[in-house]
Specification:
This protein is mainly α. The chain has eleven helices and four strands, in the order ββααααααααααββα. The strands form two sheets. The chain has a two-stranded antiparallel sheet with strand order 1-2. It has a two-stranded antiparallel ribbon with strand order 3-4. The protein is globular.
């Protein structure tokens, strides 16, 4: 394994994100041609799907809060965690880099994979299944970063929980890939800054706290859809859309799959 790194604890193999967006594009092209690929890529900035702007609070601030709690817990456990230090310029530069990387992954994970999994297994089980794949996807980069198997195991717990949270945010924001990528970015950014260039990051603490948050999400919003009924009703009926948007929705299978009927796009739920 190579020891070359893009950033501290971020090996060169992390560039595998390019494979994810490439694979998703190829699969969509086989199913829906160039129009489908275009619609998939457009979802990179589908922030207009977010109708209730209050959702930007957990999207942006949930991971920083989790890391603050992790920091406090580690200090209480006696760990000599240094005082966080980072510059705004560094944070903004990392944010931009991580956002590009997160888009590359989430176009595959959220833009292509999660909807069929949810349709078949439900939101929670679909998210957990995708979380397992997501964790396995990162094993080689973690090994390249010389992480121990214990570290990887605890990190995987946090990753499973994070995928549940991402799916929750995705489902409650009009299934926005932009939202999934933004939260994914905040995961990577807070890890890289904690507390100084990712030093002292403990996946045991952060993983357990993230898992606790995911459990609360499942209890409050329900495991089947991770959406409260009120939000589900709002998202069930879609307005009249353009043919290109219809094509985008049509390639997503299962109960939420779009049906074109008298010039409108309706979900299965709306037609019942």
């Amino acid at each position: 394994m190579t020891n070359r790194q893009l950033l501290p604890a971020l090996p060169v193999s992390a560039l595998g994100i390019l494979c994810m967006v490439g694979a998703a594009s190829i699969l969509v092209y086989r199913e829906n041609g160039l129009t489908g690929v275009t619609e998939l890529l457009k979802r990179s900035f589908d922030f207009k799907r977010v109708k209730a702007k209050i959702w930007y609070a957990p999207i942006i601030f949930l991971m920083p809060c989790i890391m603050v709690v992790s920091y406090i817990v580690m200090r209480l456990m006696g760990s000599l965690v240094p005082v966080p230090q980072f510059s705004l310029v560094t944070a903004l530069a990392l944010f931009a880099a991580f956002f590009i990387g997160a888009l590359g992954e989430e176009l595959g994970w959220s833009g292509y994979a999660i909807d069929p999994l949810q349709d078949r297994f439900g939101a929670l089980r679909g998210a957990l299944l995708l979380g397992v794949i997501w964790a396995v996807w990162h094993v080689i980069p973690l090994l390249e970063a010389q992480r121990s198997l214990v570290f990887i195991a605890w990190w995987s717990l946090g990753t499973l929980a994070a995928r549940v949270i991402i799916t929750w945010l995705y489902n409650n924001t009009g299934k926005s890939v932009f939202v999934a990528a933004l939260f994914h970015t905040m995961i990577n950014l807070t890890w890289q800054l904690f507390p100084i260039n990712g030093s002292f990051y403990d996946p045991r603490v952060t993983g357990v706290i993230t898992a606790a948050v995911a459990v609360v999400v499942v209890i409050v919003w329900g495991p089947s859809r991770l959406v409260r009924d009120r939000n589900a009703r709002k998202s069930a009926v879609q307005t009249t859309v353009s043919p290109t948007t219809a094509a985008e929705l049509a390639f997503r299978g299962g109960p939420g799959r779009a049906k074109i009927w008298k010039g409108e796009v309706l979900t299965e739920e709306a037609r019942r």
